[in-house]
Amino acid sequence: MKVDIISPGTYTYGSLVLGGILRDRGHQVRISRTPVSGGEVTLISLYSTLQLLDPSIKELTGPRDRVYVGGPVCICPEMVLGELSADAAVVGEGEDIVASLVESGPEGLPGVAYREDGRIVKSPPKPIMSLDHPLPLIPEDLKQQNVRGANVYIETHRGCLGGCTFCQVPRLFGRTIRSRSIENVLEEVREMKRLGVRRVSVSGGTGSLFGYRSQLNKDALIELLSSLSEILGKRNLSVPDMRVDLVDEEVLEAIRDYTIGWVFFGLETGSERILKMMRKGVSVEDGRRAVELAKSLGVKAGGSFIVGYPTESREDFEETMAFMEETMLDDVFVSIAEPIPGTSLAEQVLTSSREEIPLFQEHRGEYSSLKFLEAEARCFELMLHGESCKPIPRALSGELYNAYLAETRTQGADISRVMALLEKYRNHLL
Q1: Taking residues 156-170, what's their average pLDDT?
Q2: What is the fold, at CATH topology level, of the domain defined by 138-260?
Q3: Which CATH architecture has domain 265-430?
Q4: What's the CA angle centered on 84, arms 102 and 164, to 5 degrees?
Q5: Which of 129, 247, 310, 391 has a CA-to-CA distance to 66 between 20 and 30 Å?
Q6: What is the pLDDT confidence band of residue 47, given thresholds at 50, 70 and 90?
Q7: For domain 2-122, is the CATH number 3.30.70.270?
């Protein structure tokens, strides 16, 4: 059977894996980042709520027969099937069911939602016990892709021990850690390198949870990074995303010795009160210690921050600014709190008054001439502040100022659109 897999804009790792499974099943599979036609079945991989509002994606699902959508957006299948002319949405993990879905349709499969007689029929997902899979389908232009400096992010495990209110991972994959075998990962990376892929990043949330059982299995992670570094070279390997409470000297030394030597911590805020609201399970002091330890071992430390969380006050925000000054991070990423479907944050936003949500509050401070809402003003201010808090501060040029201004406006507009979509489907999200 001819199958088209479309991963709009960016090749998601899941689309590559599903392509490999169908290829080994004997199907003719074509994978693309742009619309293609001619397949008997079309699979579409979506990772962002905003993609449901993209006119090109809406158009993509319209004229085709047998269109199935998968990816994290399907955590609310009513939203997917309401916005797109798709025949089914895969709510759970797709590896075990994709062949049956393509060959026989969605009826009777676990973790699938589809329309029947004007209503949506849903079946509960069934977790996959083994994450080892056949070699992914690797498109020729994967080597040209650039996602945060990597050609591709590979998955080494699923699940997270955390319960952050803004994160989908525990809802999608649970809080039990399931890891691939090291050899399965290495075989995949060898094939990617053979086909021209040079830069690989280890994903799966917090990289140090790879091999986790009852305690942090540092030996498994260190063996993985050492082996991947032998294949790719340390300058082509990264493992960026880490929780501050799941690193120690051995983990950070392995990052220093076997990768590009960067780690990106999810610091989120300098306010203890907001950290507790986020259910991060860590303290501001935990973040401070992790950054200091990384720097002491020669590892570059970046941090991500979230502003505009419900009830965040100016005092909370100023504590974040002070924390940024103290930690002197090598790089920072600032985002406005996004209520992703399926998260506690989305439920909180839908049940809170607008007076508690900074994205709905008019900004009356220093940046009022820019017509910002309060969350946008804080995002912009923290971006600018981050430049002055680096070990080597960067001069604020007009070009940099305008880049941060455009990024802030884009984030604010995008999240406002997401909120409108959540309101439209609030009965399915609460």
Answers
A1: 90
A2: Transcription Regulator spoIIAA (3.30.750)
A3: 2-Layer Sandwich (3.30)
A4: 90
A5: 129
A6: very high
A7: no
